[in-house]
C-alpha cells in the first residue's frame, strides 16, 4: 500500500523534488498526496500544515546548501574562499531553483535557533568573513551585503533579467571581485566610548 513507510522526511524530500520541478508555489499537500497515492488527510499525521511543510523544506534546503558551500570553502581563505562560497551558492540556486526559493522563506526564529544546519551556516559564513578581520556588528552587515548580492543576482538570472551582451559569468566574477575589495576595505564600525 502506498501509505506504508510514509514519514515526514519522505514527504519533505518529495516536496523538495516537486519544488524543483514545479516551483515552490507548486508545492501543496494535495500535489504531494497525489505523488504518494494517498488522500491529503494521510499527510497530516506527518506534517501539520502547508506552512509546516514549507518550514521543513526551507530547513532541508538550507542544510543542503550549506553542505555544498562548506565543501567548497574547506581549506580556503580570503578571496579564494569568497569565490568558492559564491560559486557554490549560485550553483545550488541553478540546480535546485525550487529548493533555493525555499531558503528565502521567513522561518520562525525559534526553529532557526534549533536548526543545526542554520547554526552551521552562521559558523561557516562568519568564519569566512573573519579572515577579512571583521567582528560584530560588521559581520552582520557583511553577511547582509553578501546575501543581498548573491540572492539578487541569482533571482534576476533565474528570470532572464540580464539582457546585455556581456557574459553573465563574467559579471558574476566581477561582482565577487568587487565584494572582495569591499570586504578588504570594509568601513569598520568603531565602538562608542563615553
Question: Gist?
Answer:
This protein is mainly alpha-helical and 194 residues long. It has helices at residues 8-22, 29-36, 40-43, 50-73, 78-95, 97-103, 109-114, 116-130, 138-158, 168-184. It is built from ten helices and no strands.
Q: What key attributes describe this structure?
A:
globular; 194 residues; mainly alpha
What this model shows, in words?
The structure is a single chain. This protein is mainly α and 194 residues long. The protein is built from 10 helices and no strands. The longest helix has 24 residues, at 50-73.
Helix-strand topology string: HHHHHHHHHH
Counting helices, strands and paired strands, the structural category is mainly alpha
Beta-strand portion reads: under 5%
Largest sheet: none
General form: globular
Count helical runs.
Answer: 10
**Roughly how many Å apart are the termini?**
71 Å
Q: What is the total tally of β strands?
A: 0
Give the fraction of residues assigned to helices.
55-70%
Low-confidence stretches are none
Oligomer: single chain
Q: Radius of gyration, rounded? A: 19 Å
Mean pLDDT, nearest integer?
90
What secondary-structure arrangement, pairings included, does this model have?
Elements: H1 8-22, H2 29-36, H3 40-43, H4 50-73, H5 78-95, H6 97-103, H7 109-114, H8 116-130, H9 138-158, H10 168-184
Amino acid at each position: 500500500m502506498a501509505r506504508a513507510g510514509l514519514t515526514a522526511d519522505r514527504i519533505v524530500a518529495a516536496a523538495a523534488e516537486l519544488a524543483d520541478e514545479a516551483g515552490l508555489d507548486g508545492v501543496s499537500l494535495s500535489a504531494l498526496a497525489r505523488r504518494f497515492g494517498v488522500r491529503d488527510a494521510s499527510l497530516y499525521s506527518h506534517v501539520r500544515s502547508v506552512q509546516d511543510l514549507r518550514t521543513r523544506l526551507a530547513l532541508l534546503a538550507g542544510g543542503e546548501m550549506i553542505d555544498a558551500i562548506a565543501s567548497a570553502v574547506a581549506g580556503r581563505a580570503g578571496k579564494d574562499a569568497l569565490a568558492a562560497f559564491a560559486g557554490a551558492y549560485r550553483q545550488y540556486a541553478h540546480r535546485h531553483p525550487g529548493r533555493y526559493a525555499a531558503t528565502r522563506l521567513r522561518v520562525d526564529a525559534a526553529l532557526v535557533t534549533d536548526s543545526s544546519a542554520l547554526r552551521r551556516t552562521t559558523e561557516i559564513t562568519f568564519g569566512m568573513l573573519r579572515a577579512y578581520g571583521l567582528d560584530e556588528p560588521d559581520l552582520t552587515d557583511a553577511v547582509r551585503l553578501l546575501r543581498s548580492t548573491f540572492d539578487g543576482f541569482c533571482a534576476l538570472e533565474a528570470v532572464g533579467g540580464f539582457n546585455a551582451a556581456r557574459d553573465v559569468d563574467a559579471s558574476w566574477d566581477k561582482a565577487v571581485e568587487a565584494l572582495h575589495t569591499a570586504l578588504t576595505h570594509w568601513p569598520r564600525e568603531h565602538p562608542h566610548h563615553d
